[in-house]
Design goal:
It is built from 5 helices and 28 strands. With 458 residues, it is an alpha+beta fold. The chain has a domain at 322-450. Strands 2-11-14-13-12-15 form a 6-stranded antiparallel barrel. The chain has a 5-stranded antiparallel β-sheet with strand order 20-21-16-24-25, with no helix packed on it.
Length: 458
């Protein structure tokens, strides 16, 4: 039997080959791990998008109206009927009311009411109603009353025209049972009285302004009156005053104010009024004087209004974003451009006496005093600047604080100066258009105190 030969197998170490794919995967993996760790352990910055907005600060009041009014009384007994619509202007010697021994029937011969609307007038009411329905917003419910007043005025106008025609025909026919009475002075006629017609500004009290117990007395057509009874009043001047009661804090804030913007809640109209305050033992009374719009509120003794204290528009930012930061104040003449570049910087004096260019960022430019604000973090302590082409020097020492926010558009924090126009409880309105400030749609740190200059934000 042949002897089996054995072979010696030598094991060689396998040559190691570099796998570039594994290396790239490893680098990416390490980067992701580090990024996740930084995110989990770092401070998270919540961003806020800057948007244009406005802040309206107003205070609501009920005002007491003063104006020049004259009450006209009946010259005889009888049933009163009026020629002119309430709130209309009458001239001197114009017929205003009539008196008759019996109530007058204003129906026409066919039995229909004299105030029946024509097709054109009905179409006008329909059009007003449709416009109201299409533009109605729940937050402006007061517009319902505006529509009501508009339709009522149209109906009453039609009815008054017919009544005036019939009264005129009765007077022209020589009917002895009716007598017409003319206006003594031109003005706006109102067919109600309340006892305040002769009240002057010096007579007004806080109790009058409160509206408590107020009950006007109105007179309608075919009402029986006695000689000497009030039948109407006439307003003879376009200038009128609205008196409001102010608390001590508001009175102090408005003490030097001479004019105020006023919005009337009845119809949302806005007017400018002259303003002054009278301090009394029982409170502070504000007097708002108008020289227009009297006819719109001629039938009112009290009006609900809002005083527009502030109304500013601009960029709206939360108060939590605002911080203060110190800056070096440097004369603008020390700025220069470095060598062949267009970068802005300053010349810093070195230990060897030579000046070196240092690029800087300008955070605010004070054109009034000719200064710029530079970040102290870009410089060391006790540095001296050299003015180009003059040899003058300026030692960095004076600092001043600016209010601003941290802009995070680029993923790191950059301070931006702001100019506050007005404020509410939670927001500021700041000026737009500043070269070193904010713009619409910028992103800023919601909590400014949690961020520092050049911080990387997530």
């Amino acid at each position: 039997m042949a002897k089996r030969k054995t072979a010696n197998i030598a094991v060689f170490r396998k040559k190691w080959n570099i796998n570039i794919g594994v290396i790239i995967f490893g680098v990416v993996f390490v980067y992701l791990v580090v990024t996740v760790l930084l995110y989990l352990t770092g401070t998270h910055v919540t961003a806020y998008e800057v948007r244009e907005g406005s802040i309206l600060k107003d205070n609501a009041y009920t005002g007491f109206i003063l104006r020049k009014e004259t009450v006209v009384t009946a010259e005889a007994d009888g049933y009163v009927n009026f020629f002119a619509p309430e709130g209309s202007k009458v001239g001197a010697k114009t017929y205003v009311y009539s008196l008759s021994s019996q109530a007058i029937d204003f129906t026409v011969d066919d039995g229909e009411q004299s105030g029946e609307l024509s097709a054109v007038e009905q179409e006008a009411i329909l059009s007003k109603t449709q416009d109201f329905a299409e533009n109605f917003h729940a937050e402006q419910f007061g517009d319902v009353y505006t529509l009501k007043n508009s339709i009522t005025a149209l109906i009453e106008s039609r009815s008054n025209q017919s009544r005036q025609t019939q009264l005129g025909e009765m007077l022209a026919s020589g009917n002895q049972d009716i007598k017409g009475y003319r206006a003594g002075d031109p003005g706006i006629v109102i067919y109600s009285t309340d006892g305040y017609e002769t009240t002057s500004s010096g007579d007004v009290t806080a109790e009058m302004v409160s509206r408590q117990g107020y009950e006007p007395s109105g007179i309608k057509n075919n009402t029986k009156v006695k000689a000497g009874d009030p039948v109407y009043k006439v307003i003879t001047d376009d200038t009128w005053t609205l008196v409001i009661e102010l608390n001590d804090k508001t009175a102090a804030e408005l003490n030097d104010t001479k004019q105020m913007q006023v919005q009337f809640l009845k119809d949302h109209e806005t007017c400018t009024a002259g303003f002054n305050i009278r301090h009394t033992a029982n409170g502070n009374l504000g007097f708002l004087t108008f020289d227009s719009a009297m006819v719109r509120y001629a039938g009112e003794r009290y009006l609900d209004i809002e005083l527009i204290m502030e109304n500013e528009s601009g960029l709206k930012i939360p108060k939590s974003s605002v911080v203060k930061k110190d800056f070096y104040i440097v004369p603008e003449g020390y700025l220069t451009q470095g060598g062949n570049s267009k970068e802005t910087g300053v010349m810093v004096s070195g230990k060897d006496g030579n000046a070196e260019f240092k690029k800087v960022d300008i955070y605010y430019r004070d054109n009034e005093h000719g200064n710029v604000y530079l970040n102290p973090g870009a410089f060391g302590e006790n540095l001296t600047l050299v003015k180009p082409e003059s040899g003058e020097t300026f030692k960095l020492h004076e600092k001043k604080s600016l209010q601003g926010v941290y802009n995070i558009n680029r993923g790191y924090a950059v301070f931006r100066e702001i100019e506050i126009l007005c404020e509410s409880e939670e927001y500021y309105i700041v000026a737009a258009g500043n070269d070193y400030g904010l713009a619409n749609y910028d992103h800023i740190a919601l909590a400014g105190e949690d961020v520092k200059e050049n911080d990387v934000v997530f």
